[in-house]
Specification:
43% of the residues are buried. This protein is mainly α. 76% of the residues lie in helices and 0% in strands.
Amino acid sequence: MKRYLLLAAAIVFAIVSAAVLISLYKKPGETEYRLARGRAQFETENYLAALQTLRDVADSKKGGLQVHSYLGAAYLKLHLYKAAIKEFEAAIKAEPRESDPWIGLASSYIELGDAAKAVDDAKRATEVEKRSLDAWLALGRAQWQQQNLDQAEKAALKARQLDADSPAVSDLLLHIYFDQNPADRFQAELDRNSKPSKPTQDLAVRFFLAHGQFGRAYDFKIRHEREALDRAVLESQLALQRDASRTELIPQLVKNLVKVGRYEDALNTAKTYNGPVALDLELGKAFWMTARKDDAIQAYQRASRALIHKLSAEVALAGVTGDVKHWEEAYRAERVEQDYFILARLEESLPRASPLELSFIFRYAGIFEPAFYTRAAEEALKVLNDDPKNFDALMTISTAYQRIGRLPDATRYMQLARDIYPKSGEPPSRLASLMLLGDQKDPQQVVQLMEAAVKLEPGNAGFLYNLGWTYDQLGQTAKATDLYERAIKASPLSFEAMNNLALIYTSGGQPERALPLLVQAMKTDPENEAVYANAANYWARRHDWKQALENYDRALQINPASSVAAVEKGRIQLEQDQTDDAVDSLSRALEVNPQSFDAYMLLSSAYEKMSHIKEAIAAVDEAQRIRPGAPEIKATLERLNARKDAK
């Protein structure tokens, strides 16, 4: 027995000694160290550093595969898709029997919208590695993008066999079922995920809306916001207990209390507020839900008169009173907003609504889910069968067709409305707008139609602005100025007129007249991202970067999906040599809008300032993909290539 132990010990010693000798002879070299470092930088999302580290790694057969794969993945994360494709193709050339480069290639083509190529590459990935979750997911996404929904579902279910709890698989299946429209399968898939991601939550809300479940959409939305809402309510209440003078917290507190269903608390809290922010819309909701109909009507009427929330208030009044006139007034609102609470209250009206009322409801629902515009048109056509001259039905049909891209049909019904109602300004104004959307534009006819609208309704701020904008585009600044001023006088919500007039004043050497307009807009509607973007543009033109950045940040706080604000913020940061911050802002813009030419050109400038010439060239290549004939592309590439060759 002892002999066997000694023999075993000798064998272990020999194995350990051999391992030590092998490790001495195969000590990691520079290539392995740089590869490990680049991998670590990639995994910590330091993609630019990973590119710099990996680019010079020796291109051995094994190293070449890994290096090119990581380079491709880093470029993909930086939205440099053409560069990513080159690296993935190089990795495939080094080792075609590895699945990761095929997956990366498919992912790149998915981002570029080339579903056919993505499907081919994803299929190769599944052939190379049949048990790769990522490969089957890539195939499912590519087929979903191609709208080959049955095959997409098969790929997603294959991925589920490999990982039953993968959130990515669930997300893919939900998108497939949303398009296939089987309510039972969508709901079953949604029930599997107790903590869906924000994009999945948004998709579920859209699904419930599309099935006419307005109340369920609102309840689902609030349920997943509830934890954050409760925390915000508690924090505000504690802050007010510590310092009662912090009344600026009350408007948002009242809104949050309404959202979580604490209506009496909302009403009592609102009584303590005498500040500048109007709370009538929220009061109307609270009164409505506590069966105080008369108080609700009065609150909504006040909200409508204040104009900012006129659309929501008039729709609510239509729901409370059943009076169709409130629908007509709602569609005269200048400001469009989404209020899921108001929409949810309309669901109970659907079974007993007339075709005209249904057309109004579905037209309003189209603001939330565009598919409803088709249903709005269908109901309005029913109205025309019995009443061929119904103005509201004609306007609804034209609006719906415009929203779903049927411009000739929209124009036909709007022209019919003009013929029947020659004294109404809306048909000629809308006809002019439709003409501007078409392929063939006749500036003279557009002006004639808009002038006719203003002559018929000289106090309509929208008509005044539209005509002013047209003259502005034609270079007739004096006429544009007069019309913008009249639009602002007619309505405090004429933000576009304020912005354009501010531009005219600034370019005309009168900046002191521009700023008050922008300040007025911010005071009138402090929750509107556009007013802050306009103010930011003003400060940027005056090279007051601090004020400009503050206003762009406010716009992004209200709407994080504003790619324009993110691009302009990046432009300023680049101007101030804050290149790292500029790259972050521009990358954020590209996450929202991967077709932003300006974002890529600015990103190229940022990379050039950082001496990342290859990345700068890659960014210009993406800009060229978007606008092949842009004149600045050639000069920029020539300069960058000269710098690359000189290194």
